[in-house]
């Protein structure tokens, strides 16, 4: 089978809620990443085969196929198509998978995978809230098949996070210590300039503006999201505004445009688990991916697993036995935010650059996704 290669990867800084990027239209934020990627690579803009973007809650400024409108807003050739996909939080990671599959199949040679989210303007679950006046309180309302299979249990990421903390006996203190470490690692990464090569400044913002100076004592004062629970805002990912993009090409394109591959897509897969627990799928998805790839977890040098909530990562660490020291080494969504549709390629951009910085070979990325799903991507630095 043909190979798919990563030639370039970039992201904007992540803006905090009502922060430096909050005023930028989604199409313009996506356009910035696309235009920058095209301008700094030796491929004529008219030769791109497709643009695949992840985005959730695609209403208002994010509606109307944001991949296509971002490309056009960037002033790029009209004949190049675009498509927007929604695999929940893993949307832009799935965009990488679709781009790689297109290249591996031989049907396309030059594809951009990425994502955009403006969570200040369009908060999480905005699409669901918009449907409530039509009589739909949630996506499952009125589904006889869903109720027959899963009953009327609440389907919520917050409920799922609490269920994970309870099942794996993860204490609030453990979660808060993990969250504090995420901030410590992120602030260190920024101070040492580890993100400098992957971030393209925009609107005067040069660094992620979401890290906090916090303490265990401060987090201990936060109220639980549900009475009697242990999940608080302090152990949850932050919302954010950002875009990210990666250039995926074939070997033919490498030769044609005299490009240097930075990494090879070694493995791609997606796996499902209990949609009520919702956030546990990274655990079986990792085992499934390694089996398919013929690898052991000890073969993996670095892992990026999205910090949607601290117990998601802590349960994965407990089940896999993988070292925390090699996981989210520059912090994660708790400190650096989780801009939904942009997060997949944001994390992979960070993973690629960290493999290069540390001269490591294999990186694995996974993340929990609504519906009880998880994508896994293994990349090999070249």
Please explain how this structure is put together.
Residues 260-381 form the Thiolase C-terminal domain. Residues 5-251 form the Thiolase N-terminal domain. Keywords: Acyltransferase, Transferase. The chain is of the alpha/beta class and 382 residues long. 35% of the residues lie in helices and 17% in strands. The protein is built from 13 helices and 9 strands. It has helices spanning 26-39, 66-73, 91-105, 126-131, 144-150, 157-167, 172-191, 216-220, 251-256, 282-293, 310-320, 333-336, 343-358, and strands spanning 5-11, 50-54, 82-85, 110-118, 241-249, 263-272, 302-305, 362-369, 373-381. The chain has a 9-stranded mixed β-sheet, with helices on both faces. A hairpin with a 3-residue loop joins strand 8 (362-369) and strand 9 (373-381). Helix 1 (26-39) crosses helix 2 (66-73).
């Amino acid at each position: 089978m043909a190979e798919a290669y990563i030639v370039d990867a970039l992201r904007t800084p992540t803006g905090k809620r009502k922060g430096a990027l909050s005023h930028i239209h989604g199409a313009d934020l996506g356009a910035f990443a696309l235009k920058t990627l095209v301008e700094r690579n030796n491929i004529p803009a008219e030769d791109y085969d497709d643009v695949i973007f992840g985005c959730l809650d695609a209403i208002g400024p994010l509606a109307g196929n944001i991949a296509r409108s971002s490309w056009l807003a960037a002033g790029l050739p009209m004949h190049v198509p675009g498509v927007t996909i929604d695999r929940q939080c893993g949307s832009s990671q799935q965009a990488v998978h679709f781009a790689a599959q297109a290249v591996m199949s031989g049907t396309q040679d030059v594809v951009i995978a990425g994502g955009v989210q403006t969570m200040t303007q369009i908060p999480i679950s905005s699409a669901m809230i918009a449907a409530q006046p039509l009589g739909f309180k949630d996506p499952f309302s009125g589904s006889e098949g869903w109720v027959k299979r899963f009953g009327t249990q609440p389907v919520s990421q917050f409920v799922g996070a609490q269920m994970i903390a309870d099942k794996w006996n993860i204490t609030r203190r453990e979660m808060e210590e993990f969250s504090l470490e995420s901030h410590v690692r992120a602030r260190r990464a920024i101070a040492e300039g580890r993100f400098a090569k992957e971030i393209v400044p925009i609107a005067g913002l040069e660094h992620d503006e979401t890290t906090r100076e916090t303490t265990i004592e401060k987090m201990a004062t936060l109220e639980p999201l549900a009475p009697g629970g242990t999940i608080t805002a302090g152990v949850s990912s932050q919302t954010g505004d950002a875009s990210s993009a990666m250039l995926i090409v074939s070997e033919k394109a490498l030769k044609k445009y005299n490009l240097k591959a930075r990494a090879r897509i070694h493995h791609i897969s997606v796996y499902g688990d209990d949609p009520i627990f919702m956030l546990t799928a990274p655990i079986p998805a990792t085992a499934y991916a390694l089996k398919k790839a013929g690898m052991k977890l000890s073969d993996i040098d670095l892992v990026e697993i999205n910090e949607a909530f601290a117990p998601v990562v802590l349960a994965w660490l407990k089940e896999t036995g993988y070292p925390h020291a090699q996981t989210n080494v520059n912090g994660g969504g708790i400190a650096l935010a989780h801009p939904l549709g942009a997060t997949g390629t944001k994390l992979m951009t960070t993973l690629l650059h960290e493999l290069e910085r540390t001269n490591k070979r294999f990186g694995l990325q996974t993340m929990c996704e609504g519906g009880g799903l998880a994508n896994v991507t293994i990349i090999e630095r070249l």
